[in-house]
Design brief:
The chain is an all-alpha fold and 423 residues long. It has a single domain (2-414), classed as Growth Hormone, Chain: A (Up-down Bundle). The chain is built from 19 helices and 2 strands. The longest helix has 33 residues, at 157-189. It is globular, with a radius of gyration of 21 Å.
Length: 423
């Protein structure tokens, strides 16, 4: 009887995973969608670079702030309740964003979207810790991040085509309705752990037997650990690069500097997503089977991103179009898919009882990076003025120098990350 129950649990955990993975597609769509429709939004809402930067970053502020509550809720209230409730908030926010008559309500709508989807990733990490073994965690996280890559892919060419057909406003209304459907599916299908069905655990025995750790003690344990801060700094600056370029200013850059259409820019930006899709499971495999370590993969990613941002900063208007595809593909792997290794490192640094708290705390930093640098780059672009209504090459050069500096800091911080891999 117990064997049959275990087999049922082993099968059902995949249904749970794929429901949450579809939700993660939506999270990444919302995260990166302004890059393709930024020019349309600037015209429709009569907003400049700084205001659109604020609008784009409005997703990141609540997302970053909510990562600690996300970890606490995942560990105490449970992933199922947490995700279902907050996806309803994202539904309302997406509708408001699509129907907003001006910048102010659009910012409110995007803020609600960021708040609503902020709970999915950390809660999913908690679900993986409860339903999958430690040896399976990096691979499952890699698959999840690949699904995020699909989400960023839908935020490129498909969104460009959809917005060309029905406009950017109705596109967000349609996405809001899809968000509501997902909230219902999560409530109906997802369970926090096998024991909710009366099934035996499918995770490691040590995860079941770990003593409970109080919320305050868990936060204190994470923040006082020397292992936490290098990876946190790495997350802040590495994802500042990805979110600033891939999540907002990459699209205007391609259209303003290279004169590309929205569809052409979307095609190039879609390479970010393909890089994520390919890179997430690939980097997990490389970490587990080639290096048998986490740190060398983080250091390698930092070095590659330094090289890519160097080209963006100092060859801003002279990069061949074919090479721009490679730039985005490389950033997709080494400044986005690489977070698989970052989150695995974080999870392996702390007991499973505070897995949600640890991942939630570190997950604050990448979105804080996006929240800070998206409007900062918009301000830099505005300060350099416009030519024929578009931002200048000099503006983009100065903005990308900032991203180059971020990548250097990320590389240096990766050198101080503690190795966590164990057979």
């Amino acid at each position: 009887m117990e064997k049959n129950a275990l087999q049922s649990a082993l099968r059902y955990r995949w249904l749970i995973f794929w429901v949450l993975a579809v939700g993660y597609i939506l999270v990444y769509f919302h995260r990166l969608c302004p890059a393709v429709v930024a020019v349309d939004m600037m015209e429709d809402l009569r907003a400049g670079g700084t205001l659109v930067g604020i609008l784009g970053s409005a997703y990141f502020y609540p997302y970053a702030i909510m990562q600690l509550p996300a970890g606490l809720l995942a560990d105490s209230w449970g992933p199922r309740k947490t995700i279902s409730l907050f996806f309803l908030i994202a539904f309302v926010g997406s509708l408001l964003l699509g129907l907003a008559p001006s910048v102010a309500p659009a910012v409110v709508g995007r803020t609600l979207v960021g708040l609503g989807v902020s709970m999915l990733f950390v809660s999913t990490m908690k679900v993986l810790a409860e339903w999958f073994k430690k040896s399976e965690f990096a691979f499952m996280t890699g698959i999840l991040m690949a699904m995020g890559g699909i989400g960023s892919l839908t935020a490129a060419t498909p969104l460009a085509l959809l917005s060309a057909w029905m406009g950017w406003r109705l596109s967000f209304v349609a996405v809001g309705i899809f968000t509501l459907v997902l909230a219902v599916l999560v409530w109906w299908i997802v369970r926090d752990r096998p024991s909710d069905f009366g099934w035996p655990s499918t995770a490691d025995a040590v995860a079941v037997e770990s003593p409970a750790i109080g919320l305050a003690e868990g936060v204190r344990t994470v923040l006082s650990s020397r292992a936490f801060w290098p990876i946190a700094v790495w997350f802040f600056f590495m994802l500042a690069v990805f979110f600033s370029f891939g999540g907002l200013w990459g699209g205007p850059y391609l259209m303003h500097v290279y004169g590309l259409s929205k569809g052409q820019a979307g095609n190039i930006l879609s390479m970010l997503a393909i890089g994520m899709i390919v890179g997430s499971p690939l980097l997990s495999w490389v970490s587990n089977n080639v290096f048998h370590a986490r740190k060398p993969v983080l250091v390698l990613s930092g070095a590659v991103v330094v090289g890519v941002t160097f080209f963006l900063a100092f060859f801003t208007e002279s990069i061949p179009i074919a090479l721009l595809y490679l730039v985005c593909f490389t950033l997709g792997i080494f400044s986005s898919a690489i977070v698989v290794i970052g989150f695995t490192t974080t999870k392996e640094s702390f007991p499973v009882a505070i897995a949600g708290t640890a991942v939630g705390l570190v997950n604050l930093f990448p979105f804080a990076g996006g929240a800070v640098f998206q409007p900062l780059l918009g301000y830099v672009l505005e300060q350099q003025g416009r030519s024929n209504g578009v931002f200048t090459v000099q503006g983009y050069q100065r903005a990308f120098v900032i991203l180059f500096a971020c990548s250097i800091v990320a590389l240096v911080s990766s050198l101080f990350v503690k190795e966590t891999y164990s057979e």
